[in-house]
Design a protein that fits this description.
Layout (H helix, E strand, L loop, with lengths): L5 E8 L2 H18 L4 H20 L5 H8 L5 E3 L4 E8 L1 E3 L5 E5 L22 E2 L5 E2 L21 H27 L17
Parallel strand pairs: 1-3
Antiparallel strand pairs: 2-3, 4-5, 6-7
């Protein structure tokens, strides 16, 4: 593996021991890479120390405790030779329909919710399928959203904008239903609008 001058690493983990092992592998890799990567090793050792503390004192912690421990940890470091970034992402089970579970594998006792930017009228990520269909889904790995914003290969700009407005209203309606389900203890039910039930 050849290192370029910048790298962003997404670490997907199923539990804290798994996370600790993966971060330790990164530490070993960058220690062997030489003195130009000392700033990366320092950052990764910081992560590894916090994870090790949890493994020693609260190995079965919930997500809130984990986030409190990790929350203020720097995500990026740089020097003139190399820029490094890291994300720690809990893994999720996905059913045969391509829908992820409400809870992460790492923290199975709590619903893992996301604030849906599309429902707020702010489209931050647009997924364009090979067919050209445009789907603004909060969860990029989930293409089951029913709100279709048009087709990039077939529609003109005016048509796409019209469909975006109609789809935004549909997403907002589905998200409100999700909130009602979550507040009434029925979280996890997929609504007809196709918005993931963990999208609020």
């Amino acid at each position: 593996m050849k290192i370029q001058n910048r790298l962003l690493v997404n670490v997907v983990f199923e539990n804290l021991p798994d996370l600790g092992r993966q971060v330790h592998l990164l530490v070993d890799f960058f220690e062997e890479a030489g003195p130009d990567y000392g700033h990366v090793v320092e950052l990764l050792n910081n992560y590894h120390g916090k994870i090790s503390y949890l493994l020693t004192h609260q190995p079965d912690c919930n997500e809130a405790v984990y986030l409190a421990q990790m929350g203020d940890t720097q995500m990026f470091v740089e020097n003139p030779a190399f820029i490094f970034g890291i994300n720690l992402l809990p893994a999720f089970r996905v059913d045969p329909e391509g829908r992820r579970s409400m809870q992460s594998i790492a923290f199975p006792r709590q619903n893992y919710l996301i604030h849906c930017p599309a429902a707020r009228g702010k489209i931050e990520i647009m997924t364009v399928q090979q067919s050209g269909d445009m789907i603004p889904c909060c969860d990029v790995g989930n293409l089951k959203c029913a709100a279709r914003f048009g087709n990039l290969l077939e529609d003109d700009a005016e048509t796409i904008m019209e469909k975006m407005e109609a789809s935004s209203r549909l997403i907002h309606k589905g998200t409100l239903k999700n909130k009602e389900n979550l507040n009434s203890g029925r979280g996890g039910i997929w609504v007809e609008e196709g918005i993931p039930p963990y999208c609020q």
